[in-house]
């Protein structure tokens, strides 16, 4: 019943013909292992996010997804651990991602960067560079032992934090990381690098996964913001390419204009 | 500062706006000394170009003096006199490295619209809608120039502003269009449109070795200027153009044909009326009369070169003729950066003085009146220059 209520709430908020409503229609029936209380709480959290979006406040998509998970986790006190990273680099030469599909929100995108693979790998390997092009990140603090502390944007100006560890690091080929137990949100990521022949630059293929219990509903709500997780990772990876090739991200913010 | 702002269709005004600041490390601030109104600015003025926002500062042909540089700009200093390409290019991407500067991957902060419409975004442009980056233009007292370490080029002190200003757009545009024709000695080049770009096509075709240039327009004042540039000029309203061209080239056709008209071609006869009806009913966005004629007239194995700007869809294009004759098509926004230094050298050697296209001079404060007059008296008004 809660699921029906959520469907109705989302549809009334987004309009019955909207993409969101259609996405909700395609959702599987509510999972039976959730108690009805939790479903009501999910609804409350989802409603908060939907309300945010509809009042014209537009937090970045991934932070909305993260935030949805955070609210859920705070309410339920449980954190579904995400362990299935599945990185296998032994003898692997073809690009593939380390983050499997399935539960949660998974985004993937590839760009070609006109720089040697060593430069591109080195820039990414310093996780402290990631907030320069990933919109949803506020700060990443890296320590020398492969561990790092991440702070991301959540809804309503909140911050979401987690510690992460590097699980795979093959120079100039692949880096994969995942959050550690006790994280505000379960997350994992991987990036593969392939140098193209004849000085054509480096293919960079990134996959990110955020695992909020709101699952697909979180993603559906996120599309309300106007930018899907797919278009956000696309923009982030464009900014990565701009930083690598041009040394800066082009902008017109702050330029003069008339009335 | 004062700047010419777009407010809506046929509505521009000089307003007081904040001075531009350095935003990115590779920026420079230029104090404008001379700027121009381009024929393509009239497309904005007439409301043909989507994604304009009220308050946008226009102008993509400008030059001036460096007053401030970001910390990553080491090749320019305060006081340098520079002319600035209208295309904005990073210099480091795959396309810039291939000298396809107008295809730069990294200059458009908002490429999504162009990607949706064109499949990929070309480079950003100054003062030319948010689809092309939304950068403030140079019809102002000051302008912010991104990637200033690869765009602006210093100009020799003995050349006047008016001699070098058009390196920003129309001279390289005409030159690249002629270069795209791969002119061989003895070639005949036909040029549709005798506006400023068309005139630079004519002069450039001769610089690159054409034996004959045929200029096509229906405005007598412009045909007169084309003749002054050395072309044989024909008024397409007075002849059956295709027949005339066939006769004048003794049956072979021009070796290459340049469409320097673009999306506002004013056709005559059935095809012209058909275009107007289609455009009026939004079934086609561009009216390609000149391009159709260029394809039909061009000799077998020849080149059709298109500096004229197109924005959307074309209708009733004689693709069969293009295929049957094995034509080569070359087109696109100008890779301005590539041409600045070689063309400055040509100006210095006295091979060309680009200031010949100027017909009107206004104060920047009178820019709104300049737009109005430019858009209504096309006959006499060829090129408008503004001085702050
Ligand atoms: Zn122009
Ligand atoms: Zn570039």
From TrEMBL, chain A:
Spell out the Gene3D superfamilies in the cross-references.
3.30.530.20
Q: Which residues cross the membrane?
A: none
Task: Tell me where on the tree of life, at the top rank, the source sits.
Answer: Bacteria
Domain Inner membrane protein YgaP-like transmembrane, which positions? 32-91
Record's InterPro entries? Answer: COQ10_START (IPR005031), ORF3 (IPR047137), START-like_dom_sf (IPR023393), YgaP-like_TM (IPR021309)
What Pfam families would the database entry show? Polyketide_cyc, YgaP-like_TM
Q: What residue stretches are annotated with the Coenzyme Q-binding protein COQ10 START domain?
A: 113-238
Q: Which family does it belong to?
A: Belongs to the ribosome association toxin RatA family.
List the protein's name: Uncharacterized protein
**Gene source species:** Frigoriglobus tundricola
Which classification does the entry list for the species? Answer: Bacteria, Pseudomonadati, Planctomycetota, Planctomycetia, Gemmatales
Automatic annotation (TrEMBL), chain B:
Q: Which Gene3D superfamilies match?
A: Medium-chain alcohol dehydrogenases, catalytic domain (3.90.180.10), NAD(P)-binding Rossmann-like Domain (3.40.50.720)
Record's InterPro entries?
A: ADH-like_C, ADH-like_N, ADH_Zn_CS, GroES-like_sf, NAD(P)-bd_dom_sf
Q: Which domain of life is it from?
A: Bacteria
Is Metal-binding given among the entry's keywords?
Answer: yes
Domain annotation Alcohol dehydrogenase-like N-terminal: ranges:
25-153
Cofactor dependence is on: Zn(2+)
What CDD domains does the annotation carry? FDH_like_1
Which residue ranges does the record assign to the Alcohol dehydrogenase-like C-terminal domain? 196-264
Keywords on record? Metal-binding, Oxidoreductase, Zinc
Under the GO molecular function aspect, what terms does this record hold?
oxidoreductase activity; zinc ion binding
Please report which protein family the annotation says this sequence is part of. Answer: Belongs to the zinc-containing alcohol dehydrogenase family.
Please identify the protein, giving its name as recorded: Glutathione-dependent formaldehyde dehydrogenase
Q: Which organism is it from?
A: Frigoriglobus tundricola
The organism that produces this protein has a lineage beginning with: Bacteria, Pseudomonadati, Planctomycetota, Planctomycetia, Gemmatales
């Amino acid at each position: 019943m809660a699921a029906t209520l959520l469907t109705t709430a989302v549809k009334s908020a987004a309009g019955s013909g909207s993409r969101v409503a259609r996405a909700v229609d395609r959702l599987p029936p509510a999972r039976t292992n959730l108690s009805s209380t939790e479903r009501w709480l999910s609804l409350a959290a989802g409603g908060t996010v939907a309300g945010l979006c509809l009042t014209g406040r537009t937090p970045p998509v991934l932070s909305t997804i993260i935030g949805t998970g955070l609210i859920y986790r705070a309410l339920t006190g449980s954190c579904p651990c995400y362990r299935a990273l599945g990185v296998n680099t032994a003898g692997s030469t073809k690009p593939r991602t380390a983050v499997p599909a399935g539960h949660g929100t998974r985004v993937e995108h590839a760009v070609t960067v006109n720089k040697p693979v060593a430069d591109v790998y080195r820039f990414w390997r310093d996780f402290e560079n990631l907030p320069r092009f990933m919109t949803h990140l506020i700060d990443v603090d890296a320590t020398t032992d492969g561990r790092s502390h991440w702070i991301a944007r959540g809804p309503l100006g909140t911050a979401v934090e987690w510690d992460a560890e590097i699980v795979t690091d093959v120079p100039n080929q692949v880096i994969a990381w995942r959050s550690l137990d006790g994280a505000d949100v379960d997350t994992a990521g991987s990036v593969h690098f392939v140098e193209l022949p004849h000085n054509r630059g480096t293919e960079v293929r990134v996959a990110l996964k955020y695992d909020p219990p709101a699952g697909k509903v979180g993603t559906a709500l996120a599309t309300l913001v106007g930018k899907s997780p797919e278009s956000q990772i696309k923009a982030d990876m464009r900014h990565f390419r701009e930083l690598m090739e041009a040394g800066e991200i082009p902008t017109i913010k702050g330029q003069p204009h008339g009335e | 500062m004062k700047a010419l702002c777009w407010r809506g269709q046929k509505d521009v005004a000089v307003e007081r706006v904040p001075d531009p600041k350095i935003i990115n490390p590779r920026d420079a601030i230029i104090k404008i000394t001379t700027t121009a109104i381009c024929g393509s600015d009239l497309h904005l003025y007439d409301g043909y170009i989507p994604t304009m926002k009220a308050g946008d500062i226009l102008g993509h042909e400008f030059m001036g003096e460096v007053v401030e540089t970001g910390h990553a700009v080491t090749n320019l200093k305060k006081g340098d006199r520079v002319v600035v390409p209208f295309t904005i290019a990073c210099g480091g991407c795959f396309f810039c490295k291939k000298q396809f500067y107008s295809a730069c991957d990294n200059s458009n902060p908002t490429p999504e619209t162009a990607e949706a419409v064109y499949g990929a975004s070309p480079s950003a442009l100054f003062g030319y809608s948010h689809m092309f980056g939304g950068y403030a233009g140079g019809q102002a007292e000051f302008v912010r120039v991104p990637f200033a370490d690869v765009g602006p080029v210093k100009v020799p002190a003995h050349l006047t502003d008016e001699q070098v200003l058009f390196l920003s757009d129309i001279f390289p545009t005409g030159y690249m269009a002629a270069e795209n024709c791969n002119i061989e000695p003895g070639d005949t080049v036909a040029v549709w449109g005798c506006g400023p770009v068309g005139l630079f096509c004519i002069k450039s075709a001769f610089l690159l070795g054409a034996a004959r240039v045929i200029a096509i327009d229906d405005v007598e004042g412009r045909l007169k200027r084309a003749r002054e540039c050395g072309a044989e000029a024909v008024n397409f309203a007075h002849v059956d153009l295709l027949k005339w061209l066939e006769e004048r080239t003794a049956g072979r056709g021009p070796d290459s044909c340049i469409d320097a008209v673009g999306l506002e071609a004013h056709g005559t006869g059935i095809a012209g009326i058909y275009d107007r009806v289609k455009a009026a009913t939004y079934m086609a966005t561009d009216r390609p009369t000149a391009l159709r004629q260029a394809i039909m007239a061009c000799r077998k194995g020849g080149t059709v070169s298109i500096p004229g700007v197109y924005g959307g869809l074309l209708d009733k294009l004689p693709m069969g003729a293009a295929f049957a004759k094995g034509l080569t098509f070359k087109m696109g926004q100008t890779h301005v950066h590539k041409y600045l230094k070689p063309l400055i050298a040509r100006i210095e050697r006295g091979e060309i003085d680009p200031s010949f296209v100027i017909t009107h001079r206004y104060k920047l404060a009178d820019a709104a009146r300049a737009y109005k007059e430019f858009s209504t008296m096309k006959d006499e008004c060829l090129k408008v220059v503004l001085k702050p």
